[in-house]
Design brief:
The complex is a heterotrimer of chains A (234), B (268) and C (612).
Chain A (H helix, E strand, L loop, with lengths): L1 H8 L1 H31 L7 H12 L10 H20 L1 H11 L8 H24 L1 H6 L2 H21 L8 H18 L7 H15 L6 H8 L8
Helix pairs in contact in A: 1-2, 1-9, 2-9, 2-10, 3-10, 4-6, 6-8, 8-9
Chain B lengths: L4 E6 L8 H9 L25 E5 L3 E5 L8 H5 L5 E3 L5 E3 L9 H5 L6 E2 L8 E2 L5 H5 L7 H5 L5 E5 H14 L19 E4 L21 H8 L2 H41 L1
Parallel strand pairs in B: 1-9
Antiparallel strand pairs in B: 1-8, 2-3, 4-5, 6-7
Chain C lengths: L3 H27 L1 H4 L10 H13 L2 H11 L6 H25 L8 H4 L6 H25 L5 H34 L14 H27 L6 H29 L2 H4 L4 H22 L1 H4 L2 H23 L4 H4 L7 H22 L6 H15 L17 H22 L17 E6 L4 E6 H8 L5 H5 L11 H5 L11 H7 L6 H5 L13 H4 L4 E3 L15 H18 L20 H6 L8 H5 L1
Antiparallel strand pairs in C: 1-2, 2-3
Helix pairs in contact in C: 1-16, 1-18, 3-5, 3-14, 3-16, 4-5, 4-8, 4-9, 5-7, 5-16, 7-8, 8-9, 9-10, 9-14, 10-12, 12-14
Classes of the chains: A mainly alpha (234), B alpha+beta (268), C mainly alpha (612).
Chain lengths: 234, 268, 612
């Protein structure tokens, strides 16, 4: 078990960060290339930058969505994302590890705050999972990937909490610790290659959405031709 | 500085104290802590940080190894850019500013003397330079290793003097020494000479079996000399071959055309 | 329709390129030591043997085919000329890139243009490769321009072709042979079976052979990958040519060995001799005989196999001559690190990818190009494809390829970065060189402790205390290991403070903490220091590399400055009756004749006499 922990703390951690960094660069390069192409081919080449910026900000701080129809979902999502950003980056233990590794450190969260955020994020994750299972539209759109990613996040937070509070743990410490390392590293590895890529691409989501509607002139005809339905009415 | 400086090392007098190593490190500003030898290197103690060393042979024989400063150095001959240089006075020195890092000098040295700074991303070739800058400026009158030797096992002078001294010692105590001066004419002669009571062939690769008195650089120069002629010769050969073949083709085409025309004519 | 074979092959190439990119980062940031197994005894390794020596020879197809088609007018081989010249261009590019990896100071590579040493074979090779690379670029230009609107320029280059081709052949003759010339200066390194004064000529002839068989390999592999009809007639012709060329090489090599009187060495059974036999069988004998049979020349697989065999044999020859055979002289074995293989393979993979890229866009092989274009047209109307897990739209055509291949590339890059060696803190300081704050290696494993020499010296009683540690010096040992002092904690030389430990561990109850319960308390401890003081030990880490001191007195220095004054003083003490104690021979009294001569003045009964 200890060799597994050593492996997860050493080579696999290095691999996870390597994959994250080079994968992120790949995603950005591809995103910029594709966006440039979409813009070049668009019939209407105007881009409403100000409006897009405001809209993006609105999604990041979902105050307006609180007046929407799925208020519990919005809150759960916001709480979970706050925990997901703050805890991994500002937990004292993580910062110490990073400082040991690359020599740069930064201020940390107090332990109590980290605990609270973790529990809140777990609760948020629970609500998100329930939404996915219970709401018809969400269930219809969900693939195995969505459940897997949710399960991974839940594992990472749960084991993380137990690592910080070993007295509450039903399992031996090394098992929990290994589970935490592996689930967290798997998340890092998956970020550039799964739906988690929205962590890297959130800045360009809005512009993709915007450019997406600016069809190539005659684009619809091509789609129909590709589907073998040329000439048929839409 | 004297012309043709040379070092004569008498293996029978060396007590292996390594004062020469310390003096060398001081004068050349080398780190005291040698990196451990790279796996796969000849374990003679030489390294990029240790330009002279004392090899411990059985029965308390101590053999100091350093650059031999050959009279016709292979390392100087092979360096494509001339970063290894034979100074007019004699010592072989190295200029990092010119070097490419091809390490051909290390391949060409029959004694395995030049060493590389393997652990640096900006490496240079390091070896004994016979304290050339300090000797040249007159800061010291003999190399640091010689000056520090407590038993005069290693002495300094012109190559003529050193050969004479070596000969004198061999004659004076013929039973003590192997009757041979190492470096007198091996690979065309070296500036670092040895007299010894054991064979010193192990200082060269392959136990020195492949080393003759002939210097190494002419081995390649013999071929390289011919390069311009080879180049032009190949050009002339290819050009004329092309001309001959093209002409033959043309003639054959004409002939074929003539035959065809003749047949046509006949047919009419 | 998708060509799965080609797709997979390209994927593998991208993975290799990704691995090489990772190693490249390590190579250029940390140096050759970390990324190779090279050493001072083996300064040239795989990168010279395969990438440079092998690479130049593998690219010989360019000048051979140029001569066959454009000088000798064998129109049958016309289809092979353009691919061969393109391969040569990329091959020489690969040699240049490989050289950048191998050179210690690659940013100085241009120095060869301004600092001249005409006596160096490498200088000549460098110039020829530079010029030939330019010539090859000019030879490739018509291929690129043929189907572009720049028809005037295209016609100009076509007119220029003949003199350029001849110049290329002239340059190739020179540097193919000069690679052999480079080894001439090392008769002491190169094994007699490979060393010969005919090395330049042998290298030239073998390059011609390798050029022909390499064109065969390339043609067969391309037709297999693109599922095209192989050009059997051309291949059979090349096989016949190869057979003749190989026979010439075989005769030359045998005659050379015979004239040098080395024929017996071939069969002396040493592993190098066997390697030589293997190399000759692979490169020359088997293909030469095989190609002579018409049945083989009618078989696609047969020709492919024999050509591959010959290519492998000749690459082995270059590796043997420039490195492997020298094990004989250096007596040090060298086997490349995986990182070296990664770079070599990665460069080849990158070349292959560029070759495909050009081949699929420019008329290198017009028939092939048509097939590729038809396939591209068919793909443009295919249904959209999605990535299996991420469910991302992949796009069509080359954009799909870009997404898939970049995925493989970055994955290989990340794996390579993880597996690549990191900066290794190589410190193996012996006690003898320790001064100031320093680091000592303890035990056989890679464990280090900070060793504060000054502190030790101060605690032991200042400058005169050296003997406390250093006088324990044993024969053949340059320093005294820590254990000599720290093993028995009650020796007077020990730095262990028993009282301090007792009080720190709270009184007499503490005995059992080190000495064990119910056991008789011995002088030697039952517990190792490291069991409690583990935090003082450290595994190798980057910190270990820093040294405060610039240089340290050697052990001898310590002995001499410290022992001699005392010895001289004691020698003057008449009550001791040791008048010779101050002489060198009192300590340096080995048993050989030379040393006895040196210490002859010591009569028996003195310290020197008593000790010997």
């Amino acid at each position: 078990m200890n060799t597994w922990v050593a492996w997860a703390r050493g080579p696999f951690l290095y691999l996870a960060f390597s994959v994250l960094v080079v994968g992120a660069v790949r995603q950005w390069v591809l995103a910029i290339g594709e966006l440039a192409r979409a813009h070049r081919m668009a019939g209407d080449q105007r881009v409403p930058w100000r409006w897009m910026f405001k809209k993006s900000l609105g999604w990041i701080v979902p105050v307006n969505a609180l007046r929407g129809t799925r208020i519990p979902f919005t809150i759960a999502s916001a709480v979970f994302h706050a925990g997901m950003l703050l805890v991994p980056l500002f937990l004292a233990g993580h910062v110490a590890l990073i400082e040991q590794g690359i020599g740069i450190g930064w201020p940390t969260l107090p332990a109590a705050a980290a605990d609270a955020l973790t529990l809140a994020a777990l609760a948020g994750l629970g609500v998100l999972l329930l939404y996915r299972l219970l709401e018809r539209a969400a269930r219809f759109l969900s693939g195995p990937q969505d459940y897997l990613l949710l399960a991974l996040c839940i594992t990472a937070f749960l084991t993380g909490y137990l690592v910080a509070h070993p007295e509450a743990s039903p399992l031996p410490f090394t098992v929990i610790y290994l589970g935490h390392l592996l689930s967290a590293e798997l998340i890092l590895v998956l970020i550039p290659f799964s739906k988690l890529a929205h962590a890297l691409l959130f800045a360009s989501t809005r512009i993709v959405w915007e450019l997406g509607w600016h069809f190539v002139p005659g684009g619809g005809e091509k789609v129909r031709a590709a589907l073998g339905k040329a000439g048929e009415p839409v | 500085m004297i012309e043709n400086p040379a070092i004569l090392t008498d293996v029978t007098k060396c007590i292996g104290c390594e004062q020469c190593v310390v003096a060398c490190k001081k004068v050349n500003d080398l780190p005291a802590n040698d990196a451990p030898p790279r796996p796969g290197s000849t374990p003679d103690g030489l390294s990029a940080d240790r330009w002279t060393t004392v090899i411990r042979e059985p029965d308390n024989h101590f053999v100091r190894k350093q650059c031999r400063h050959c009279l016709e150095p292979a390392c100087v001959s092979v360096c494509p850019v001339g970063a290894m240089q034979k100074t007019p006075e004699g010592p072989v020195i190295y200029d990092k500013a010119i070097c490419l890092g091809c390490r051909y000098c290390m391949m060409a040295c029959p004694y395995g003397v030049p060493h590389y700074e393997w652990d640096s991303p900006n490496p240079s070739v390091r070896k004994c330079i016979l304290c050339y800058p300090s000797l040249k400026s007159g800061k010291i009158d003999k190399p640091a290793c010689v000056a520090s030797c407590p038993t005069q096992a290693t002495i300094f002078g012109t190559r003529g003097e050193m050969l004479a001294e070596a000969g004198r010692r061999l004659r004076a105590e013929p039973s003590k020494y192997v009757q041979r001066i190492w470096g007198e004419n091996q690979v065309g002669g070296t500036s670092v000479l040895y007299v010894s009571d054991i064979s010193l062939d192990f200082l060269a690769f392959g136990d020195g079996r492949q080393l003759s008195a002939a210097p190494l650089p002419p081995l390649t120069w013999g071929t390289l000399k011919a390069v311009p002629f080879e180049f032009l010769g190949m050009g002339v050969l290819m050009g004329s071959l092309y001309w001959v073949i093209e002409r033959r083709r043309k003639l054959m085409d004409e002939k074929a055309a003539a035959v065809a025309a003749g047949e046509d004519h006949h047919g009419e | 329709m998708e060509n799965r074979r080609l797709f997979l092959f390209k994927g593998v190439m991208w993975i290799l390129a990704g691995l090489a990119a990772a190693v490249a980062i390590v190579r250029f940031s940390l140096g050759l030591g970390v990324s190779t197994a090279l050493s001072d005894s083996t300064p040239w390794g795989l990168w010279i043997g395969f990438d440079v020596m092998g690479g130049v020879a593998l690219a010989a197809g360019g000048f051979v085919m140029a001569a066959v088609v454009h000088i000798f007018h064998r129109e049958r081989y016309h289809a092979a000329a353009r691919p061969a010249i393109l391969t040569a261009f990329l091959g020489y590019g690969a040699v240049a890139v490989g050289l950048l990896f191998d050179l210690g100071l690659p940013w100085n590579i241009w120095h060869a243009t301004i600092y001249w040493n005409v006596r160096s074979a490498l200088f000549e090779v460098a110039w020829c490769v530079m010029l030939y690379l330019t010539v090859l670029a000019l030879e490739v230009t018509p291929t690129i321009l043929e189907r572009t609107p720049f028809q005037k320029t295209y016609r100009f280059f076509v007119k220029l072709a003949l003199p350029i081709m001849i110049l290329g052949i002239m340059l190739s003759t020179l540097h193919q042979s000069s690679l052999g010339t480079m080894l001439l200066i090392m008769p002491f390194r190169v094994h007699p079976l490979w060393y010969s004064h005919l090395l330049p000529e042998l290298f030239f002839v073998s390059a011609i052979c390798l050029g022909i068989v390499m064109v065969m390999v390339e043609s067969t592999v391309t037709s297999w990958l693109y599922r095209r009809e192989p050009e059997m007639e051309m291949l059979a012709g090349l096989a016949r040519l190869a057979s003749i060329a190989l026979a010439c090489y075989f005769v030359m090599k045998s005659a050379d060995l015979l004239l040098q009187g080395k024929l017996a060495t071939v069969f002396d059974g040493t592993w190098l001799a066997n390697l030589f036999i293997l190399e000759m069988l692979l490169s020359t004998v088997i293909p030469m005989v095989g190609f002579a049979f018409p049945a083989v020349r009618r078989s696609f697989r047969g020709m492919w196999f024999l050509a591959c065999c010959s290519v492998a044999g000749f690459v082995l020859d270059r590796i043997n001559a420039s490195g492997l055979s020298q094990v004989w002289a250096t007596r040090r074995f060298y086997f490349p690190e995986w990182t070296e293989f990664a770079i070599s393979l990665g460069i080849v993979a990158a070349c292959v990818l560029v070759f495909f890229f050009i081949q699929e866009r420019f008329p290198v092989d017009p028939h092939g190009l048509e097939a590729v274009e038809a396939e591209r047209k068919a793909r443009a109307t295919a249904l959209p494809a999605f990535a299996p897990f991420a469910q991302v739209w992949l796009g069509e055509g080359w954009r799909k390829s870009a997404k898939v291949y970049s995925f493989l590339f970055v994955l290989a890059l990340a794996v390579g970065l993880t597996a690549a060696p990191k900066a290794e803190p190589v410190v193996d300081t012996r006690a003898v060189r320790a001064v100031g704050a320093n680091i000592l290696r303890i035990g056989p494993g890679p464990r280090y402790v900070y060793f504060d020499h000054k502190k030790h010296q101060d605690e032991a009683g200042g400058r005169k205390s050296c003997a406390l540690c250093h006088h324990l010096h044993q024969k053949g040992d340059v320093g005294t290991p820590c254990v000599v002092c720290h093993e028995n904690l009650f020796l007077p030389t020990s730095v262990f403070n028993h009282d301090a430990h007792v009080s720190a561990l709270a009184g007499n109850d503490s005995c059992a903490k080190c000495h064990g319960k119910g056991e008789p308390i011995r002088v030697t401890p039952t517990k190792k220091c490291s069991e409690c003081h583990d935090k003082d030990m450290m595994a190798a880490n980057p910190v270990v590399k820093t040294f405060a001191s610039k240089w340290a007195p050697s052990y001898k220095d310590a002995m001499h400055t410290m022992c001699i004054p005392c010895h001289e003083e004691k020698a003057k003490d008449v009550t001791l009756k040791l008048p010779n104690l101050g002489r060198c021979g009192a300590c340096h009294n080995g048993g050989t004749e030379s040393e006895k001569a040196y210490t002859a003045e010591f009569p028996a009964g003195t310290t020197a006499g008593a000790r010997s």
